[in-house]
Amino acid sequence: MAERVAIVGVGQTYHRSRRPDVNQVELMNEAVRAALDDAQLTLKDIDAVVMGNMELFEGNYLVDMWASDGIGSYLKPGMKITTGGTTGATISCAAFTYAASGLFNTVLAVAFEKQDEGDTRAGLISVRDPLWDRFMAIGAVATFARMGRSYMRASGCQEEHAALLRVKADRGACRNPYAHLKLNLTIEDVMNSRMLIWPMRLLYMCPTTVGAAALVVASERKAKKITKKPVWVQDWVTVHQQSARVHRPGEEARVRTIGVGETSHERAAQLIYKRNGITKPIRDIDVAEIYEPSTWGELIWYELYGFCEPGEGWRWAEKGVTDMEGEFPVNPSGGVVATNPIGATAMIRIVEAALQVRGDAGEHQMTRPVRRAFTTAWGGQNWTVATLLSKSI
Amino acid sequence: MRQEPFVVPGKLVVPYRYFVGRLASKALIALRDDKKVMGVRCPTCNLTYMPPRSTCGRCFSKLEELVEVGDKGTVLTYTVVYHKEPVHPMEPPFVYGLIKLDGADTALPHFIGEVEPEKVSIGMKVQAVFKDKREGNILDIKYFKPQ
Ligand SMILES: [Zn+2]
């Protein structure tokens, strides 16, 4: 990388099911102003703007063009990015790359989703392979149900373990002023919520959220001038993989145990750990903000990210390892199962991780110091973005 | 024997509804209830935008000051549509124009009607024709006709 890169400003809107008071551009504008304020910069300091969302969710295809007034890209270079659930992380990585290239010193990244304006399910169906997958109209719920069922049968995990993690997420969300669902849940509430597809209950699935997020990213020289608390972007990685079906021989055993074959999660985690000398995540990483659209995903992905051994994820849930006060906290913000403005969700992981590194997360700030944070994003069909943020370089 | 490539038919029908925001809502209420065409002024740049928007793209100020831009304006440019497509809002031939309303610094795309397409010209003075039953969107102006 030509230049080292830091996050020097973060912003997000509050998150709700509906925002009838604002249009799409006004929603993004709230996050942009918050990020500029946080960086104590004005638009004059911004050299380029990268933005995006999931276009078919709102039925717009050139939002980067007509939103330029509100996001601050008027007469500035930049581009729009749409990569499913990973959108917000891919936008962030593009901004990191812009700043690292030496071509731009200070870059604004903007992500949003206004899910109260279209039909997300119809949009989601369009992400499937039109020749072989789409006719089944399988959405995210069925995907996680399949994973949860396989995992329970193979590992000894019970539904209670997922419920424990869902309550953990809610505790985080209740402390997070920006979170969407704050429900003060008990295990009983979770296990009595409506069954969608066994073992997927309503509360194991993320909500339909309206919201936006923004980041200000700067090259090393610039970052040190802008802030006393830069959050260094140590590394980022993107891995693509085929859809959820089994495409390669030899994956049958994996499908029986976790409902999917080899995943982009494992590859991304292995790659970023190796490049950064991480051999034991529980020791080398202080907090993780992962993209868990479902609690069943969170449980299984602890294993795929190599946080714990295969088959150990549910035992971690039992022991509270990933609670905010636990040995390896995951999603102190409440995570995606509490707040999911899809295009912005993956950027919120980075925003929240950056706040933890800075020590500015407020009520859901970890009590012990955070030197290094790990974030992930996951998009349909199998696409993972992982980042490592660090207090020092 | 002629062989055709196989296709799998597909169709997505997705309904949308777009919230316009507080500022544009006020402008559309004025249009619906009083046939008043409103723009928004940026006091820093001394520019009036129509359609209204909440942020000035030049100076990034928040914009709040709605001002009436009037129902009369000038055709900056136009085009005539002669062919028929299912998505078209009316039967061809019809005319699209960019109309700069007298009180605005920006142009509004809209239809030009009550005139032979061949007689439309750049610089032509036009005025809005309002719908009788208005619903609070930009089509409450049916089209612009020559003054
Ligand atoms: Zn201005």
Description:
- The complex is a heterodimer of chains A (393) and B (147).
- Chain A is an alpha/beta fold and 393 residues long.
- Chain A has 2 domains: 5-120 and 209-232, Peroxisomal Thiolase, Chain A, domain 1, CATH 3.40.47; 131-207 and 234-390, Peroxisomal Thiolase, Chain A, domain 1 (3-Layer(aba) Sandwich), CATH 3.40.47.10.
- Helix content of chain A is 38%, strand content 18%.
- Chain A is built from 16 helices and 11 strands.
- In chain A, helix 5 packs across helix 16 (342-358) and helix 8 packs across helix 14.
- The longest helix of chain A is centred in the middle third of the chain and has 17 residues, at 159-175.
- Chain A starts with a strand and ends with a strand.
- The model of chain A has no long low-confidence stretch (mean pLDDT 93).
- Chain B is mainly beta and 147 residues long.
- Chain B has one domain.
- Chain B is built from 1 helix and 8 strands; from the N terminus they run H-E-E-E-E-E-E-E-E.
- In chain B, the strands form 2 sheets. Chain B has a 5-stranded antiparallel sheet, with no helix packed on it.
- Classes of the chains: A alpha/beta (393), B mainly beta (147).
- Chains A and B meet through helix 1, helix 4 and helix 6 of A and loops of B.
- The structure holds zinc ion.
Distance between the termini of chain A: 14 Å
Strand content of chain A: 15-25%
Q: Count interface residues per chain for the largest interface.
A: A-B, 32 and 21 residues
Domain tally of chain B: 1
CATH fold-level assignment of the largest domain in chain A: Peroxisomal Thiolase, Chain A, domain 1
**Number of E-type strands of chain A:** 11
Quick structural overview:
The complex is a heterodimer of chains A (393) and B (147). Chain A is of the alpha/beta class and 393 residues long. Helices cover 38% and strands 18% of the residues of chain A.
List keywords for this structure.
heterodimer, A: 393 residues, alpha/beta, Peroxisomal Thiolase, Chain A, domain 1, 2 domains, nine-stranded mixed sheet, two-stranded antiparallel sheet, 11 strands, 38% helix, globular, B: 147 residues, mainly beta, five-stranded antiparallel sheet, binds zinc ion
